[in-house]
Design brief:
Helices cover about 45% and strands about 10% of the residues. It is built from 16 helices and 11 strands. It has helices at about 1-30, 50-60, 65-85, 95-105, 115-125, 135-145, 195-210, 275, 280-285, 290, 295-310, 350-355, 360-370, 375-385, 395-420, 430-440; strands at about 150-155, 165, 170-175, 225-230, 240, 245-250, 255-260, 315-320, 330, 360, 425. The strands form 4 sheets. A 4-stranded antiparallel β-sheet has the order 1-2-3-6. A hairpin with an 8-residue loop joins strand 1 (about 150-155) and strand 2 (about 165). The structure holds adenosine-5'-triphosphate and manganese (II) ion. GO terms for molecular function: ATP binding; metal ion binding; phosphotransferase activity, alcohol group as acceptor.
Length: about 450
């Protein structure tokens, strides 16, 4: 009797598995829309699942949208018909993870025909810190963790303890020392605790997984260094090793302009910022010239998504390359307050997303592709290559997958609220190029 129940359970589970897998394979086809959404992997939590209601609302409001919505409906119907005839594919998440992990793995011994510092500096533009997945990156990181320190000084900027070092070849870097063990959980307000050096490393690689297109919202971080013995007042552990992270200094010919973050916190107990009490706050931000045109507001949403995933609620200011003017991207310099508490999801970090209800189509597509645990598994694989691995505990890794789901839920809620215009194909920013890239990228996702 018991045996039979067991077999029935196995049979039902297997059938459910087959149904779910086939549904996921077919879903990209179901919701493909050539005009408004780049093709690629669209799987679970697809916002258009709920868009029938929204479409009615949108159709009354906007003629252009109207066309797109009708097209979407037609595609949907067509795809429904195809679904009946479609052959069964087999999606293997393991293969996806393997292929992405390979794509983002670092080749530390990649041969360089120029100095690593000169190469890294030549990559920087007002909208890019490094090219998308540059093969030379591993060699630059290796130069950072092996380079000889020729000068050391205390860091003079910011509030957190740090050193300014100069490496052989005259490269300036910031050194942020370790304060916590990997499994230490920081409790308290969202910005509590000291800097986490491992968080800088993890956030850098998370940015590389195409969460932030490197030509849209760059990050600039470093890798870890083992310093031999005590250095200039920062003490090494009992084993004589001082662990920390190195952040490569921006090329000196660029000047950084500091901006107050519109969604910054007050850092005062009991005093809330305007955006924390007023859900129409985005309209005020959009009235400011910096945010009313150009890519800046979408850049802020991009970084809010990254900050939410890593749990960084400390984005009080941001910097841009002055020379890039209004179109310059955010330079995300300081991720030290990330990965504090894996059991807490600080939803308020997503305020720019849910208050403005807009997100780049390219980012949304990438988020979809990283569902099903792909995000944590690929990141774990890349971080496994780091000289001070493990960088993140399993609890932090699974927090990333859980938070990814929460971001997609927020996007879905926005589509419900404002319609398809929540998903922005960013034409002010060379979107046709991105669409091409998107197609290419979908080769490594579940598609
Ligand atoms: N890699 C870098 N290249 C150029 N400038 C940098 C770099 N890192 C830091 N800076 C400058 O130093 C300032 C302080 O750095 P950072 O934000 O990392 O320090 P912090 O102690 O965490 O500061 P805060 O307490 O304000 O958060 C930055 O705003 C930036 O102007
Ligand atoms: Mn800081």
């Amino acid at each position: 009797m018991k045996m039979r129940r067991k077999w029935r359970f196995i049979f039902v589970s297997a059938a459910l598995f087959v149904i779910i897998v086939s549904y996921k394979i077919l879903e990209p086809e179901l919701f493909k829309n050539k005009d408004s959404i780049p093709s690629g992997d669209l799987s679970l939590k697809e916002p258009f699942e709920r868009s029938d209601r929204v479409q009615d609302k949108d159709n009354q409001e906007n003629d252009g949208e109207d066309q797109r919505e009708i097209q979407l409906n037609e595609d949907h119907r067509e795809a429904e018909d195809q679904k009946k005839e479609a052959p069964q594919h087999h999606v293997d998440v393991n293969e996806v993870v393997e292929s992405m992990a390979k794509r983002f793995s670092l080749n530390f011994s990649y041969p360089l025909d120029t100095s690593p510092w000169r190469l890294a500096a030549s990559w920087v533009t007002p909208r890019q810190i490094h090219p998308e997945n540059a093969k030379e990156l591993g060699a630059i990181l290796k130069a950072m963790h092996e380079g000889k320190i020729t000068q050391a000084d205390v860091g003079h900027r910011g509030t957190q303890l740090k050193l300014t070092l100069v490496l052989d070849g005259k490269q300036k870097v910031v050194f942020k020392p370790a304060w916590y063990t990997r499994d230490y959980i920081v409790e308290g307000p969202p910005y509590a605790g000291r800097d986490r050096h491992n968080a800088e490393i993890a956030a850098f690689h998370l940015g590389r997984l195409n969460l932030l297109l490197s030509d849209e919202a760059p990050c600039f971080y470093g890798r870890c260094l083992y310093c031999k013995g005590p250095e200039d007042g920062v003490c090494a552990g009992s084993d004589g090793v001082l662990e920390g992270v190195l952040v490569l200094w921006m090329p000196e010919h660029f000047h950084l302009k500091l901006h107050r973050h519109p969604w910054g916190r007050t850092y005062r107990d009991g005093k809330l910022a305007r955006w924390e009490t007023d859900n129409t706050y985005c309209a005020q931000v959009q009235a400011v010239p910096t945010y009313s045109r150009g890519p800046r507001l979408l850049d802020i949403v991009d970084t809010a998504v990254l900050d939410f995933l890593v749990g960084n609620a400390d984005r009080h200011h941001y910097e841009t390359v002055e020379e890039g003017g209004r179109d310059a991207a955010l330079v995300i310099l300081d991720n030290g307050k990330s990965f504090g508490n894996p059991d807490h999801d600080e939803m308020s970090i997503l305020a720019p997303l849910y208050q403005c209800c807009q997100i780049r189509a390219s980012l949304w597509q990438r988020l979809l592709a990283l569902q099903e645990g792909v995000l944590s598994r690929v990141l774990a694989s890349v971080l496994g290559q780091d000289p001070i691995a493990p960088i993140l505990t399993d609890r932090h890794l699974s927090a990333l997958d859980r938070r990814l789901g929460a971001v997609l839920d927020q996007i879905g809620a926005c589509v419900d609220r404002v319609g398809i215009k929540a998903i922005v194909v960013d034409s002010s920013n060379g979107s046709s190029d991105h669409l091409k890239k998107d197609k290419r990228n979908s080769g490594v996702t579940v598609s």
